[in-house]
Amino acid sequence: MQHPVRVVSGMRPTGALHLGHFHGVLQSWLRLQGEHDCYFFVADWHALTDQVQPVAETAIYDMVVDWLAAGIDPQRTTLFIQSRMPEHAELFTLLAMHTPLSWLERVPGFKEVAERHPSFGRLGYPLLQAADILAYKATHVPVGQDQSAHLELCREVARRLNQVVGAALFPEPAAVFSPTPRLSGLDGRKMSKSAGNAIGMREAPQEVRKKVVRMPTDPRRVHRGDVGEPERCPVWALHQVSTPSAEFAPLASGCRSAAIGCVDCKQVLLDHLLPQQAEWRARAVQHMAEPKQVHWLVEVGTERARVMARKTLRDVREGLGLKV
Ligand code: SF4
């Protein structure tokens, strides 16, 4: 059976997003929403697999505001909240019946998780991810390289259920990799809120300027005449995602010959980064002024997603001989 192209992707509710989220995930979403039928969701059940405190509503809606600020269009995509879809939980249960434990044990990191957070929910969350994806019969899933094992599990689970019901109920979804899976932060390590090395998507310009000015550079560039190597500098990683590529060659050769100083190089970065953030901020301000409208957009998306998930569940129940 030929399944229509459909993309499903979720993000845990982390509150306001940073540049790593934008370049690692949202940029792929923006490209995909222009080409395919997309379902993007707030993975709030997944958040509970790692945290003991309840999920804050502000963490959900601050994140959704940043999706909208980045240009995610609820007219073209379906935005919804995972925990509002009991169909995912039902599908998880039905898939679990046909998923050998050994498949989950093969997922990288299973042993450490079993030692550190041995809750059933945490150990089984790759299967919940499979349910999130298969509830919409997704054909494509944006993933980081570190999640390809999870998608492989999803493909195996889909194949197994298709065999059990004797029909091609589910497609085996393909991975869509991000061109910037890992953006480095202010200190050169992976950008993350917890590492304290992030620049928020809509952080105030004066704060962004301060952060960029303080960023370390190639340690060999101590004095203005010292030559450097862009690849050894965390500022260069931000240029790669913010500065037009036509400017890379003169900047790189200026760094290698000491023709430009780090202050000038950082100013070029700010000249491109700040206007992009100003656009996000302007859109976010509009959405934050109308919180009811944002809730309504998510509400409409959730109901649209429910229609699709219910249809899938009817097919699965019927295939498994359960009363429909
Ligand atoms: S010139 Fe630019 S790339 Fe080179 S070390 Fe300085 S800030 Fe980094």
Automatic annotation (TrEMBL):
<keyword id="KW-0067">ATP-binding</keyword>
<dbReference type="Pfam" id="PF00579">
    <property type="entry name" value="tRNA-synt_1b"/>
</dbReference>
<dbReference type="InterPro" id="IPR002305">
    <property type="entry name" value="aa-tRNA-synth_Ic"/>
</dbReference>
<comment type="similarity">
    <text>Belongs to the class-I aminoacyl-tRNA synthetase family.</text>
</comment>
<keyword id="KW-0030">Aminoacyl-tRNA synthetase</keyword>
<dbReference type="InterPro" id="IPR001412">
    <property type="entry name" value="aa-tRNA-synth_I_CS"/>
</dbReference>
<dbReference type="GO" id="GO:0004830">
    <property type="term" value="F:tryptophan-tRNA ligase activity"/>
</dbReference>
<dbReference type="InterPro" id="IPR050203">
    <property type="entry name" value="Trp-tRNA_synthetase"/>
</dbReference>
<keyword id="KW-0648">Protein biosynthesis</keyword>
<dbReference type="GO" id="GO:0006436">
    <property type="term" value="P:tryptophanyl-tRNA aminoacylation"/>
</dbReference>
<dbReference type="InterPro" id="IPR014729">
    <property type="entry name" value="Rossmann-like_a/b/a_fold"/>
</dbReference>
<dbReference type="GO" id="GO:0005829">
    <property type="term" value="C:cytosol"/>
</dbReference>
<keyword id="KW-0436">Ligase</keyword>
<protein>
    <recommendedName>
        <fullName>Tryptophan--tRNA ligase</fullName>
        <ecNumber>6.1.1.2</ecNumber>
    </recommendedName>
</protein>
<dbReference type="InterPro" id="IPR002306">
    <property type="entry name" value="Trp-tRNA-ligase"/>
</dbReference>
<dbReference type="GO" id="GO:0005524">
    <property type="term" value="F:ATP binding"/>
</dbReference>
<keyword id="KW-0547">Nucleotide-binding</keyword>
